[in-house]
Specification:
Elements: H1 2-15, E1 28-31, E2 41-44, E3 48-53, E4 58-63, H2 73-88, E5 94-99, H3 119-137, E6 142-147, E7 151-152, H4 154-160, E8 164-168, E9 175-176, H5 188-198, H6 200-209, H7 215-221, E10 226-228, H8 233-245, H9 251-254, H10 266-269, H11 279-286, H12 300-307, H13 313-326, H14 341-356
Parallel strand pairs: 4-5, 5-6, 6-8, 7-9, 8-10
Antiparallel strand pairs: 1-2, 2-3, 3-4
The chain binds ligand L52RLTOW.
Length: about 350
């Protein structure tokens, strides 16, 4: 019963995510530090500071949940809202994610949100974490992680879901998925992302051992793209961003899964009027098999996190086809193979989330 009421609350929260926020001011706007020229207004919330630069189309998003940027429910929710806001504003094409807290990029899951909490709270928290994952992993924005501090577990998840990672050269700033050492098992979609980034054998070792890599090793294994002196992290992230944004259309919107698959005939890229189809729509036409969800491989915990209860196949089938086909999944910017269960699962999760959301016109 407690679980059921928790789920109802969580569903309401999905409809109005800001209802989750306690003591938070959203949408505050104030001049950016340093005077601020055209469009240089900053906004954000209590735990997420956004410094937008309309001229370049890039916003710097700073996590500020001192002392260690633990991913509390509030921080997760505020991050999702801030990203959504930037995605909906066509001025912006890229976001640099960084920390406003000294020495720590993000300490990962806020363990106080899990330990000793009731199942309803854990389900709500799990859902919020997944929502952030989906929002970053499938973002239409270019995301660059400017990692200016320690980056364990959930911090590394955020970094992994970005297109590019720049790490400060400080041996104390280690990065990796160390949750195994805490008895938390990484969901397989997270494992797959690790594999996509650092390869199979390295992931196998690092996940099992719960390895945290110091900068030089993180660079060597490919977990980060650049290691630079601490005072150059932000400027390097901006240079990387410029490189990514310099890719002209249509390439810039189609890097990622589509880019790594066979080229599509032109009639799949354009509609009858010659307008270019959104990347996700083109991908769906090219790879209809992606819409065939492998329900049997649904991870029960992941599903439980979304639904708040173990879903039956009957229930999933009732929810999925219409939603998935009506609203194809957004194409992410991480290279996934056609057969990757991650893709199917993300689609499934998204579809399930949509099932709780009002449909967009
Ligand atoms: C419920 C379902 C979840 C669904 C999730 C879905 C998918 C993903 C699944 C799993 C992957 C993710 C797992 C995790 O993220 S688990 C968390 C792993 N994090 C860590 O191991 C980091 C632990 N912390 C540190 O290593 C260090 O604190 C630090 C970040 C390097 C900073 O070091 P520093 O010396 O600067 O600070 P302190 O160590 O003194 O810490 C200050 C203060 O913060 C407390 N604290 C530290 N980490 C956490 C944390 N993760 N959550 C909550 N609190 C934390 C620490 O105890 C200190 O508290 P105090 O009261 O003593 O001041």
């Amino acid at each position: 019963m407690a679980l059921a009421s928790g789920v109802r609350f969580a569903e309401r929260a999905l409809l109005r995510p800001w209802a989750l926020l306690r003591g938070t001011t959203l949408g505050r706007t104030e001049p950016a530090a340093g005077g601020g020229g055209d469009g240089a207004r900053r906004f954000g919330s209590q735990r997420v500071l956004v410094e937008p630069d309309a001229a370049s189309g890039v916003a710097v998003m700073k996590l500020r949940n001192p002392p260690i940027n633990a991913l509390s429910l509030e921080l997760l929710t505020e991050l999702v809202i801030s990203l959504e806001k930037l995605e909906n504003d066509k001025t912006f094409r890229g976001v640099i994610l960084t920390s406003d807290c000294p020495r720590v990029f993000c300490a990962g899951l806020d363990l106080t949100e899990i330990c000793g909490r009731n199942p309803a709270h854990c389900a709500e928290y799990w859902k919020a974490m997944q929502e952030l994952w989906l929002r970053t992993y499938l973002s239409s924005l270019v995301l660059v992680a400017a990692i200016n501090g320690a980056c364990p577990a959930g911090g590394c998840i955020i970094a992994l879901s970005c297109d590019c990672r720049v790490l400060a050269d400080n041996p104390k700033y280690r990065i990796g998925l160390n949750e195994t050492l805490l008895g938390i098992i990484a969901p397989f979609w997270l494992k797959d992302t690790y594999v996509n980034t650092i390869g199979h054998r390295a992931s196998e070792q690092a996940l099992q051992l719960g390895s945290l890599f110091p900068p030089a090793e993180a660079l060597q294994v490919g977990l980060v793209d650049q290691v630079v002196p601490e005072d150059q992290v932000q400027s390097t992230a901006l240079s990387e961003m410029a490189r990514w944004l310099a890719v002209p259309e249509p390439g810039s919107s189609q890097v990622g899964p589509i880019f790594f698959r066979s080229r599509a005939p032109a009639d799949q890229e354009h509609d009858a009027k010659g307008h270019r189809r959104p990347p996700a729509e083109a991908a769906r036409r090219r790879h209809p098999e992606l819409c065939q969800l492998r329900l049997q491989r649904l991870h029960p915990e992941v599903a439980a996190g979304v639904l708040g209860e173990a879903p039956t196949e009957e229930r999933l089938r009732a929810v999925l086809p219409a939603r998935v086909l009506a609203k194809p999944i957004l194409v992410g910017t991480v290279a996934l193979e056609d057969s990757s269960p991650v893709f199917a699962h993300l689609k499934l999760l998204r579809a399930l989330c949509f099932a709780h959301l009002p449909r967009r016109p």
